[in-house]
């Protein structure tokens, strides 16, 4: 009999560990007991789902393949220790390996009463939804004063105790054997028909039609319109296919689309209930076959790319354009990473286009401030360009032009100034001049390259996301980052590129000289995948969804809460940084992460509520008072919000609402109904809903309106305004800072070589996108990351191809005109 012994304590000298080790040794002839340490697992964090990691998957397999589980708990404050509690939370979240598993609870502690209270509590916990073990009753083994009960070899001293423990184990083995014998499948019966059910998805309800025959689920038809394109598709494809193939509801949710997955599973369960069937029987059935294949899959390509986000797909498309072969490894079921979540604007100075748009009041003040800046404040390497910019601004202001000014030099200087920061240790950081200049000189070419590939940009509007500091955003007509990912994925697939989804890169392969010659990966069926390549490009994104890693490196924020939300995809956990450092890559700027000030307070999402360009932001704290210049950079806004209790509100009226780029009237109404967005016909009423003094909010808005009229904000110095708050209904969107971007990463040069600590390129290895550091330094401007990933994705491919052919080509496509 195979049993798993769960060590329910994080302490080094925990008696429960000694007890389980003793059982493992002493009763080896009766059961093979494998120990599982709860302290090896991270603390439970719902917003950072790690269920898919190897650590968790191995634990689940171990438990599922066992005949029973023994949980040995210590006691802490009369209940189970936090390490065990956290482990159980993970097991009830997305994994459910305890379902129908025979379980025995035992306990040991240094306290006189043993872990009796913890054991009682653990039984109650095991009744919670999502766990579902069959716990053996009245067979409690409790060991008090445990420090005195073992000898130096870790063996129980007292024979009576050993005998009692042996009889408990014997009972459990009998219990588990009987269970194995009776665990026969129950049959289901349905009233045949087509059942239409409203499913709850990520963005609201969607309709699911379930066709049932007498004893089978025959078809599941989903109306997919309302869910997020590019994120939900794998759930729409996979969950119904697995339900139908296995005739089971015991199906794993799809990572990154868990709401949609659960929505589908719940809707099929509802349909079964409506037909008179019992969905619980289907929930207890085995999972569908994973079809594991033992032999590794091997590939040979010119360029292997890790990560199918914007940078990776750009590198793949560029490789294919050069008639070379490309293979992309993607750990998630769908392509897109953080790029598919992006708001869309790509920063690129295009002065001829920008001239069509009128300057906004206040923009000239920002330019004048550059003229007034002392050159000594500017780092030496940027000074020539700064002087050049001052000349451009002077010409523009002297010419009394009323159009929107821009130049690639202005973009460069804003990127540099926007990223110049000092951390808590007094360490100054600013963007590497060569990287910044490469970005700003080539961003427009990247936009043109995307347009040639088929991305349609809305040229009727020049826009900027929060913290961009200037209007130079090129926004696609299709929604959000999906526009880029759709076009790039299609290009790659249609031109012979391979994208292996659900295939996680685990190791870079090197030859005897340390040159990178390929990647090792593992796919969803556990099969090893080996890609031999002339060059490898790391494009695995940053580490914003890995709170522990952000905390570990942080030198910028005074405190980062363990349960801080993130705007990132759960896939963004710093794998590329680990892969690179394992072959000697150096890191740069790792202590600097960016918080998105205007995130959803619960989910961390960016695009709920009413998100407008910052000219129309009015941020008020929980008292109803403004607290910052809303046109500031993201870190300034996030710090100000944290100082004001983190939670704050974006106030909008009916006209400001129309400038939002993220929503529709229907979505807003749903959020108002759900209580996640506040709406009222009067500002006073809105204030009351927010528990604010109405006179304070009204006074704040009156003042703000007067500043818009005067083009001058004497309180916080906001200098770019658009609309006043005048027209009912009025809205308040609750917001809170969440981890958004990690500026640090692998050290690269302008040709995207990954560098080691001696600034030498690691042969065969390149990096692009958020996985790389040095460019955005201490703070990234909104809209600069998309420019970065498309520019450096192209550069990485060009360099990789050139060097794998041993031909030195110029990897950049030349500066664009100012
Ligand atoms: C909500 C949101 C909105 C944003 N809006 C904007 C915006 O409007 N403008 C802007 O400029 N920037 C924006 N950003 C930032 C920008 O989207 C990201 O910085 C950028 O998309 C990162 O691109 P990337 O290609 O480097 O990584 P990603 O797009 O994150 O892709 C990395 C990919 O690598 C995969 N991966 C990771 N590890 C492995 C592994 N071991 N094996 C295989 N695959 C792996 C991941 O699954 C992922 O698909 C936004 C970010 C977020 C989260």
TrEMBL record:
Residue ranges of domain FMN-binding in the record: 201-275
EC top class, as a word: oxidoreductase
GO cellular component: membrane
Catalytic activity: dihydrourocanate + A = urocanate + AH2
EC number, UniProt record: 1.3.99.33
Cofactor: FAD; FMN
InterPro entries noted in UniProt: FAD-dep_OxRdtase_2_FAD-bd (IPR003953), FAD-oxidoreductase_2 (IPR050315), FAD/NAD-bd_sf (IPR036188), Flavocytochrome_c (IPR010960), Flavoprotein-like_sf (IPR029039), FMN-bd (IPR007329), FMN_Rdtase-like_dom (IPR005025), Succ_DH/fumarate_Rdtase_cat_sf (IPR027477)
One annotated GO molecular function: FMN binding
Cofactor detail note: Binds 1 FAD per subunit.
Keywords, sorted A to Z: FAD, Flavoprotein, Oxidoreductase
Pfam families hit by this protein: FAD_binding_2, FMN_bind, FMN_red
Protein family according to the UniProt entry: Belongs to the FAD-dependent oxidoreductase 2 family. FRD/SDH subfamily.
NCBIfam families noted in UniProt: flavo_cyto_c (TIGR01813)
Protein known as: Urocanate reductase
